[in-house]
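Figure 6 in text form: structure in, sequence out.
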């Protein structure tokens, strides 16, 4: 889809609005205080909200959240522009150049029979681009170096999946699912021992190992851990709200037996409602 005059005009207006928000004369005090570092949490928050809108299939919500994410891009470009480092034109030109470079089957006469070939070509071109370090010397650990940069800005769960997939593709992989489960039990036992020792730092390390191994389980099963955990969060809150409602919003002083009974009742009610809807 080519850029329409309406899209170009709307983007230009957004750029102008953000520039005015950052204008020392008559701008917004909050926006003027922001830096790349202070805005970083908002970038992650908006990206998560875009993903949530996609999961819910709500176009109105998705368009709104994409706008919020676009605002973050324009804000960061505006801050950099004020400091003479780069601007939105550099950002757009850079990604266009990258897309052209990594799609030789579209722009340079190369061939790619299917999406798997496209992905393989993309990774090969990307690896060639990143194989040389900042000092101009070939890296002795190119995959590790690339992954360190790639996952640095990702949420930990997504980063773990990225590392797991890339390491497995490079040959660092179990022979079968039984090996994965064996590793899960091994790490879980180590977590139990660390917790029992009272060493919180060690327990935190072992918890991370358990979570990383469970991400590998998800990869082997072809399921998305982020989506799974997001679903669990929603289900928990749905059930918990019913427990709260049954107790008039006051859980204080209730026994775990009573709370568990209400929890199971909430699960049954939700299951019954879902069955009647299907």
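Output sequence:
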């Amino acid at each position: 889809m080519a850029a329409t005059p309406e899209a170009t005009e709307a983007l230009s207006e957004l750029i102008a609005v953000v520039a005015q928000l950052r204008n020392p004369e008559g701008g917004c005090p909050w926006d003027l205080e922001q830096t790349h570092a202070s805005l970083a949490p908002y970038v992650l928050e908006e990206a998560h909200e875009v993903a949530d809108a996609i999961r819910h299939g709500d176009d109105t919500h998705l368009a709104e959240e994409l706008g919020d994410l676009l605002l973050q891009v324009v804000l960061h470009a505006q801050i950099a522009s004020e400091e003479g480092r780069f601007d939105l034109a550099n950002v757009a030109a850079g990604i266009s150049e990258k897309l052209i470079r990594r799609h030789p089957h579209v722009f340079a006469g190369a061939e790619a029979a299917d999406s798997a070939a496209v992905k393989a070509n993309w990774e090969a071109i990307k690896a060639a681009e990143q194989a040389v370090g900042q000092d101009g010397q070939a890296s002795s650990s190119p995959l590790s170096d690339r992954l360190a940069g790639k996952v640095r800005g990702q949420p930990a769960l997504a980063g773990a999946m990225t590392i797991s997939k890339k390491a497995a593709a490079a040959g660092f992989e179990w022979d079968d699912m039984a090996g994965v489960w064996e590793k899960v039990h091994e790490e879980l036992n180590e977590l139990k021992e660390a917790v029992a020792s009272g060493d919180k730092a060690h327990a935190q390390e072992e918890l991370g190992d358990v979570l990383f191994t469970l991400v590998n389980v998800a990869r082997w099963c072809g399921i998305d851990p982020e989506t799974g955990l997001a679903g669990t969060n929603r289900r928990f809150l749905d059930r918990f709200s019913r427990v709260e409602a049954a107790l008039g919003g006051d859980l204080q002083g209730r026994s775990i037996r009573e709370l568990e009974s209400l929890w199971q009742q909430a699960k049954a009610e939700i299951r019954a409602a879902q069955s009647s809807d299907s």
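Caption detail: The mean pLDDT is 92.
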